[in-house]
Write a structure and sequence with these properties.
94 residues, binds zinc ion, two-stranded antiparallel sheet, alpha+beta, 4-stranded antiparallel sheet
Length: 94
């Protein structure tokens, strides 16, 4: 993991407590932090010779659709689901 992304991950923890949702972009990754999950998604490369950073291109035909570029579409994404805290008991344990 690049150092810049690690710094963004470390900086996102205190922000997570105050913000409902947060999205940061660093080079080829996007970090999304929400109270229920943390996601690290790949982004298109700016220096990609095929898409020039657009992430894909339009394919003509009867049903025009966007084709995703391989510089980001086949890279893995990381998703961590955050479980809710258990309910605090109303009675003291003793
Ligand atoms: Zn590309």
């Amino acid at each position: 993991m690049p150092r810049r992304t690690a710094l963004l991950l470390a900086a996102s923890v205190p922000l997570m407590a105050t913000a409902a949702a947060l999205a940061l972009r660093a080079s080829r990754w996007e970090l999304y932090v929400h109270r229920h999950r943390i996601e690290l998604k790949p982004q298109p490369r700016r220096s990609c010779p095929d898409c020039q950073g657009a992430g894909g291109w339009w394919v003509d035909g009867a049903n025009p659709e966007m084709e995703a570029c391989g510089c980001w579409a086949y890279r893995r994404e990381l998703r961590v689901r955050l479980l809710p805290l258990p309910a605090w008991p109303d009675e003291p344990p003793f």
